TrEMBL record:
Protein name listed in UniProt: GntR family transcriptional regulator
UniProt KW DNA-binding keyword: yes
Gene3D superfamilies (alphabetical): Aspartate Aminotransferase, domain 1, Type I PLP-dependent aspartate aminotransferase-like (Major domain), Winged helix-like DNA-binding domain superfamily/Winged helix DNA-binding domain
Family: In the C-terminal section; belongs to the class-I pyridoxal-phosphate-dependent aminotransferase family.
Keyword annotations from UniProtKB, A to Z: Aminotransferase, DNA-binding, Pyridoxal phosphate, Transcription, Transcription regulation, Transferase
Cofactor: pyridoxal 5'-phosphate
Alphabetical list of InterPro entries matching this protein: Aminotransferase_I/II_large, HTH_trans_reg/aminotransferase, PyrdxlP-dep_Trfase, PyrdxlP-dep_Trfase_major, PyrdxlP-dep_Trfase_small, Tscrpt_reg_HTH_GntR, WH-like_DNA-bd_sf, WH_DNA-bd_sf
Pfam families named among the record's database cross-references: Aminotran_1_2 (PF00155), GntR (PF00392)
Keyword Cytoplasm: no
GO molecular function: DNA binding; DNA-binding transcription factor activity; pyridoxal phosphate binding; transaminase activity
Annotated ranges, domain HTH gntR-type: 10-78
Length: 473
């Protein structure tokens, strides 16, 4: 019989009840198994019978035991909530960047999103009608897992003409945003403990995805807009990483663009050390000093590069259209992962995007957008220049990577700014070791020109107040 060991020295009914509870939860008695009688417990413990009864009463109230008339106390089957305790806890990773984006902001400098007033929203209502006239049964069917063939054909042609990417439609997979592409790639190729190279700084949400997969992250520095290729080679040689996630064109957060020569050398290293290059490209159409060089993918003759291209930011974030370009055997593996993830991106979104993308409105839109963004960037830079703050001059993209003066504490600045609904991102989010403590990322693409002026004024006042406060402390 299951006996009680009273060496724990229970003296009160509460202690006894806690002791019995722990043993019931541990499974010392199965559901519906009889518990020791009151008399037996009293004898073994030397406690009064009333104390034992009170302890059982308390366990009964908690639903851990029940009484059978004239028979005694029995272990109750676990309640639903208790049974759920045995279901493994969800592995939900709360990304830091996502949490900051959810805060309300009067001056939105944290999200690298484009002001909806600058996007071609009004055309989509028109296309909606057209698309349903052309494909009346559109919503009555699934999309192909790989994506709409018409859209993939169009994109393959576009990549051939505009970016020197020689691709077939079969080498493209449509995804729901670049974020999903990163996720699929991590799902396929990262197992816990796998070494993965990332840039420093790098896109914060990619860090979060790789961490969630248990990757062992190793960082590659960027100096004066270039990689240290020797460092990359040493890392590849020493750690044999499965993949190197890079954002070489209008890099988030710095806006730099890796030169052609380095792109060519990188693909040689990747082939030599059999390391996949995951080239993330979300902003190559947002340039300020002329078109960027061809993507790394274009220089790769061995097939070690997987190219992610998103159109989400500057056409329609709501449609979530992006694609992955990959050679075999990678494409088959990606297709299997995409099929498990969602069975294919929504067909309506793909058709709407297709109709806009093949019109010449796209090119006019991009020309105007680049001008509007450049103006906003220059306004923000003007405010920073007046305050004497330094920043990296971006060649493209949507944000400024700013170094705040040494005396200014970024956590303090962030706290005060958020309290006044000015949102920004601390530099430490963009690094696996939370370096860049003196950096912040300020996006100039969402706030209007007036909002940028006002918000930056307020931000500078806040920083001066912090400075004064710090001097008196
Ligand atoms: C480098 C980088 N990759 C991926 C993404 C996610 O893009 P999408 O909106 O297409 O999911 C972003 C968005 O900020 C980004 O900056």
């Amino acid at each position: 019989m299951n006996t009680i060991n009273f060496h724990n020295g229970a003296r009160s009914f509460r202690q006894l009840s806690a002791y019995l509870e722990a043993r019931i939860r541990r499974g010392d008695w199965q559901a519906h198994e009889k518990l020791p009688s009151v008399r037996q417990l009293a004898q073994e413990s030397g406690l009064h019978r009333l104390t034992i009864l009170k302890a059982y009463q308390q366990l009964k109230e908690c639903g851990l035991v029940y009484v059978r008339h004239k028979s005694g106390y029995y272990a109750a089957p676990p309640a639903v909530s208790a049974r759920l305790d045995h279901v493994p806890a969800p592995v939900v990773f709360q990304g830091n960047m996502a949490a900051l984006h959810q805060l309300p902001a009067r001056y939105q400098f944290s999200q690298a999103l484009i002001d909806p007033n600058l996007l071609p929203n009004h055309y989509f209502a028109e296309y909606m009608k057209e698309v349903f006239d052309l494909y009346p049964k559109l919503l009555g069917t699934y999309a192909q897992v790989q994506g709409d063939p018409e859209l993939r054909e169009l994109l393959a042609g576009y990549f051939r003409r505009s970016a020197q990417l020689h691709l077939d439609a079969d080498e493209l997979l449509i995804t729901s945003g670049a974020q999903q592409a990163i996720h699929l790639i991590a799902d396929i190729w990262i197992r816990p403990g796998d070494p993965v190279l990332v840039e420093s700084p790098t896109y914060a949400n990619a860090i979060d995805v790789f961490r969630q997969k248990g990757a062992r992250l190793l960082s590659i520095g960027i100096q004066d807009g270039c990689y240290d290729l020797q460092e990359i080679e040493q890392m590849m040689q020493r750690y044999r990483p499965r993949l190197f996630y890079l954002n070489p064109t209008f890099h988030n957060p710095t806006g730099i663009c890796i030169p052609v020569e380095q792109r060519k050398q990188l693909v040689d290293l990747a082939a030599q050390y059999e390391c996949l290059l995951i080239e993330d490209d979300t902003c190559s159409d947002i340039y300020f000093d002329g078109k960027p060089p061809a993507p790394v993918f274009a220089y790769d003759t061995e097939g070690y590069t997987i190219h992610i291209r998103s159109f989400s930011k500057y056409i329609s974030p709501g449609l979530r259209i992006a694609c992955i370009a990959a050679r075999q055997p990678w494409m088959s593996q990606l297709l299997a992962a995409k099929s498990l993830a969602d069975g294919g991106s929504p067909l309506l979104n793909q058709k709407l995007f297709l109709h806009y993308f093949r019109s010449d409105r796209l090119h006019r839109h991009l020309d105007k957008l680049r001008i509007a963004l450049r103006i906003r960037m220059e306004i923000m830079q003007q405010e920073l220049d007046e305050a004497g703050w330094q920043y990296e001059q971006p060649q493209g993209g949507l944000s400024l990577w700013v170094r705040v003066p040494d005396h200014l504490s970024v956590p303090l600045l962030l706290r005060e700014c958020l309290a006044r609904q000015i949102s920004l991102l601390p530099g430490s989010l963009f690094d696996i070791r939370e370096r860049y403590e003196q950096h912040i990322r300020l996006s100039f693409s969402f706030a209007s020109e007036t909002q940028i002026r006002e918000g930056m004024h307020e931000l500078m006042i806040i920083s001066r107040d912090i400075n004064v406060q710090q001097r008196f402390e």
